[in-house]
Amino acid sequence: MFGMFIEQRTADDLDLIRLLDAAFAELVARYGLEGRSGIGPGAHYLVAVVDGETVGCVAVQTTGVAGTGEVKRMYVAPAARGQGIARALLKEVERQAAELGHTRLRLVTGHLQPAAVALYESAGYEPTDPWGTYATRPGTFCYAKPLTA
């Protein structure tokens, strides 16, 4: 893709905040208020920038499980979808997670997000037992993937 790059941003970055707000709004529109979940302190954020416009984001956070990170808030603005941006963000967040010392990533998506399910499964994520609050939420799909060095 011409003119795309991925870079780290901090939680107070205005472009990142705009994307996270849009991601939350989309989740609430699909799932109601239960679609909203937070990102823990110490999360590492990445954004995709295409031709000067910030169009996608993803975060990785620690989980409290040794060696395991969690992918959070994978989002690409609707006008930028279908261009491989989510796949590029996922690949880069996996690289960053490995650099942070994670040997495994996990994530959650829902039954109303078939494109996300397809992306994660095609990237090697496999279904895993649900954890935490997801254990009792119908319609959630939990995935995990070992990371290679």
TrEMBL record:
Q: Which residues form the signal peptide?
A: none
Q: Which SUPFAM superfamilies match?
A: Acyl-CoA N-acyltransferases (Nat)
Query: Which InterPro entries does the UniProt record give?
Result: Acyl_CoA_acyltransferase (IPR016181), Bact_Acetyltransf (IPR050832), GNAT_dom (IPR000182)
Q: Highest taxon of the source?
A: Bacteria
| Keyword Acyltransferase recorded | yes
TM segment ranges: none
* Start and end residues of each N-acetyltransferase domain: 4-148
Q: Does the keyword Ligase apply?
A: no
- Keywords attached to this entry: Acyltransferase, Transferase
Recorded GO MF terms: acyltransferase activity, transferring groups other than amino-acyl groups
Q: Which PANTHER family match?
A: AMINOALKYLPHOSPHONATE N-ACETYLTRANSFERASE-RELATED, AMINOALKYLPHOSPHONATE N-ACETYLTRANSFERASE-RELATED-RELATED
Q: What's the protein called, per UniProt? A: N-acetyltransferase
Q: Which organism is it from?
A: Streptomyces hainanensis
